[in-house]
Amino acid sequence: MLTRAQRIRAYAVQALAVLLALLFLAPFYFVLVNSVKSLGEIMIDAASLPEKYLFSNYSRVWDIIRFPKVLGNSVVITLLSVGGIVILSSMTAYRLVRKPTLFNRILFTAFISSMIIPFQSIMLQLVRVTSLLELRGNMFGIIVCYLGFGMSLSVFLFHGFIKTVPLEIEEAAVVDGCSPYGVFWRIVFPLLRPIVMTVVILNGLWIWNDYLLPVLIIGSNKDITTIPLAVTRFFGQYTKQWDLALAGLAMSVTPIIAIFMLLQKYIVEGIVAGSLKG
Fold it and tell me: What pTM did the predictor assign?
């Protein structure tokens, strides 16, 4: 049985948790409520419930930004980028862990060091290099850039987790005639599922919602426009169509929120497993 003081502390913690939940959910309330209002009603009072629910805002956004097209672009870019990051970073981290040579230690240090470089400091150089290599304005270019920027953190996460995999399992597989690639893909990689899901979720959220890198690489190419770029169409120099922009924002975050809710437990599982065994 809890003492009176312990019950009071428990109630206080629960009340604080509820207040924090309401604080973090407030932006979602404003997005959803204002997405079904007229622009004039938003300007008058953005916090109140709508007098008339204008679900037609969603159909207008669907047609204006060609939502199925931009949704498909975002899905393809996110899937290919995240898949490439998982494959390349896991293989890289495995090599760095199992072959701790001086070169590999320096390479791992370079990966970690690159994480502290602000993106804004290399924007101009990135534009010049991608223009020189003809990577701007096409889907292959944006995927290559995401692979480069996503590798550092992913290698760091895989590196810590792979060190927890017992080496004896791999040695037994080699004795049974398994090739080096077979050892990784058949033995090691299945054991990395928790950290794989962590890497997928972290990079997927970042790539899906990213605006700055697509605007630099994709530019004005409407054939491969992503959802964040398409939503900015409602913000002009003199007018801002908040009713349509918020409806587009609500449509864009729905898929990624659904995926995150389904897979969020793997984030905690992966991080906790690495911290306990690493």
Answer: 0.83
